[in-house]
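Hi Y.,

Following your request, here is the sequence exactly as I used it, all 354 residues.
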Amino acid sequence: GKHVYVEKPVSHNIWEGEKLALGQADYGVVIAHGFQRRSEQAWHDVFDWVKEGHLGKLTLARGFCYKPRKSIGKVSAPVKAPKTVDYDLWSGPREMLPIRRSQFHYDWHWQSPYGNGDLGNQGPHQLDVCRWALGDPMHLPPAIISIGGRYGYVDDGDTANTQILYVDHKPAPILFEVRGLPKKGLDWKNGMPEYKGVTIGNVIEYEGGSLLGGHNSGCKVVDKDGKTLKEFKGGKDHIHNFIDACHSGKQDVMHGAENGHHSAALAHIGAHALQLGKELPVDQIKASLTKTPQVAEAVDRMMEHFEANGIGATKPGLGAPLTTDGKAFTGEFAEAANQLDREHYRAGHTLPNA
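Below is the corresponding structure, written out as tokens. Let me know if you'd prefer a different format.
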């Protein structure tokens, strides 16, 4: 009977996100997600302005996480959890696996039993804005393309630090990019890459221009030549929305569990696809992208990024071509994707009908 505020990415997997959404409906409680842009006036105002037709038709929703992620190093043998940590409780539904990282806290993000890289760490924030731009489709996408891997160093991490995710949604596709390496020379002093001035944020493209915004309460609209047409500012405390909903017993669907679930699910699908894929020469990957020129262009920029960092002869990972019917995985890799998605819930941490 308690109301719940769940930090992003809302769920560990797609199936668990569905359970969360169903739980909210069954128990009639408030379940809020940690996608803060949903509470900021600037983003509400800009989407209202765009809906008035000033930029024409939506053509592509881009998201970016160009965020510095250094190597987490390697340990020669498993290490002990800090004395301040109950490792049994910390492990949650996972078995108590050997700890193979020198920094116990935070670096779990880059180890797949616990985290899902920046696609599932920072990514859901920007993927959520992309879904918002599309009108919040409440179903899984028909298909996705996932490309990338972990490059630039060898460490105890196994999640991608460089990745492209293409989501075949309607009315327009979503293209999200992760880059954890610096602009050039594997030297962090050179700063991070950017796309039209955005490092962590969104570039939502329309026929007549683009909406540009970072991971904050400010955004702007530019024309096709990059000239600023209008700026939008103004935020609101996201927690206030949650508390107000708890008091009133009413919650806007855009702040609820189902909406958060579908934004997080895009990252989960992308992670599953890459895990089920294989490394291929870039020419073979490009040959498979003739119907998605936006992805081919993103691959070209990714390879230029590798070259600038002195990473040669890289074979990117091409994810398995996962498809859905809107509710569940379909096609050749459905069984393998479902197996990955259900994970392993140990005794005491199982869900109903697991």
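The chain has a mean pLDDT of 96.

Thanks again,
Q.
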